[in-house]
Amino acid sequence: MVGHRAAYRLVLDRARDNSDIAQASGAMLFEVLDACDGWTVRQRLTLKLTDRDGNETETVSDYSTYETRDGTRLRFALTQSSQGAVSSQVQGEAEVTATGGTVRFAQPNAREIALPAGTLLPMAHTIATLNAARAGTRILAVPLLDGTTASGPQDTTTVMSAWQAAAMTDPRFPALIPLGSSRMRIAFFDRDQTSQSGGAGTPDYEVSLRYYENGVADELKMDFGEFVVDGRMVELAVLPSPC
After folding, report:
1. In a domain, 165, yes or no
2. What InterPro entries does UniProt report for this protein, alphabetically (predicted)?
3. Distance between CA 200 and CA 210 in Å, rounded?
């Protein structure tokens, strides 16, 4: 994994028949910093949606985490706003142990939730999927706690393509040209609904992306259910480690 700052341009890929969305555009800034004993991550996503009547809504999501390098502790904060007004906040910390662990929320309500055995934190999950793809594994199904929802951990299923050597040809991103990569599709499921249905149902959210071996993603598609947004990296800065 490498520290980096990447900027993405977001456009509407497609809207489903039952959707009222006519247009979508925006930007995302994703930053990973090597903090020596862990990783700090910040993601800011701005999305402007236009419905079929021409009404516009701008949503902004600010998400930040600190995760220890051994993947056992996480601090997280998420603030979402619509039309300039805060619509939701999630904040807390988590500890992962061999038998599961605990997540403690400070926002939106103070409460504690037990984590199932095998839960991964977000950076640990990224590393696990990259290692699995390089080893030839095609599917990885694990609980994930990333702090983006107040319901706690989610079940995830990641489907990975065959590992591809030296896939990057864009001269704007020389740091990626010699690196291997894999295309992945990650589906997120509500654990309560999964247990009630006796198996995986409809995902709450899906994201497809191409991950390079250093943890940089240059292409992504975010599936919000009613519509899908396509993201393409337009800027990349590799950030040196201070360690």
Report:
1. yes
2. EipB-like
3. 24
